[in-house]
Amino acid sequence: MPTELEELVGFIAHPNPQIRKLATENLVPYSAEQPSIFKTEELLPVKHLKFLIRDHPEIAEHALTILINLTADRSVLEYVATDDKFLGILLGNLVDPAEPNANLLAMLLANMVKWDDLKSLATRKQDPPSALQSNELVLNQLLDLFVKGADGTYNKKADFDYLAYVIADLSKHPEIRQFFVTKQEYDGVVPINKIKVFTEHKSDIRRKGVASTIKNAAFDVPAHPAFLDEDQIDILPYLLLPIMGGEEYDDEETMGMLPDLQLLPPDKQRDSDPKIVQAHVETLTLLTTTREGRELMRRVNVYPIIRETHLKVNDEDVREACERLVQVLMRDEAEPGAEEEAEDDGEDDRIVEV
């Protein structure tokens, strides 16, 4: 005989919307605590939940929350992420400026892109809503949504912060890294330039995802000249400002720094998350792969900033990252092997749970 919980799971497909609402609402906590109850009959309950994302907004909200939790399980993740029709519905709803559950859709997509085959988003297209002013490429729509949707400016019920984790995971794939450093014809903008401004955003989710995306994109060594060029990406201020506090430097050190980094107020706060600081330092290390990158960082006095970061951040991983960068910057160019040691981004293990 089925248990009471198993019977409740059966009600998520009930024709009466009030019963569906009660069932999904009461099942939300069990999706994290007892996910096995949704894995019966070859994942039939999950199939029903996928239909419910187009139901009444309150029912869709509960269904999405359950799916977000369930996709922490690899078998459920595969079942959801390989459903191309469902992916199309999700992406279409996500860019709708009137979608009430857009943040939950972004969270679910952040889990789904952990399925490696979703690197196919590199070429996927859909018609964009006129309000987004984007083109048909889904990647561009997600990026424009991330930028224009910050702080509820595109959809009053969403901030789209979790798209930061979507782009971070997608940027693990070489073909999508290439997208981030390639100027887009429809607006003439290099995608990395759209997101770099969020390295000091109030949302730690945005800052984490953007830091990881920039780091992943920096593995594309041929793009390093563009990263460092003031007239192209000009990434250094966006990496260095978040790792700087209100430290005082002597006049010689200060005058040699980039203009944006000089005369910061004494109450300037360093990013509070050591993982973000670590990501930025590791990105700087990646950008020392070329001699031009190393020489530029020496010329604009990156070393004193890293020295103070090493002193002020009480985190072993940050200190180790700082030490690796300092070793490269202080090395005589006659010595061989001045190469980066940073490894690929760690965001690929993040599963969103609510």
UniProtKB/TrEMBL annotation:
Residues 94-277 form the Protein HGH1 N-terminal domain. SUPFAM superfamilies: ARM repeat. Pfam families: DUF383 (PF04063), DUF384 (PF04064). Residues 335-348 have a biased composition (Acidic residues). Residues 332-354 are annotated as: Disordered. Residues 283-336 form the Protein HGH1 C-terminal domain. PANTHER family: PROTEIN HGH1 HOMOLOG. Belongs to the HGH1 family. This is Protein HGH1 homolog. It comes from Chaetomium fimeti.
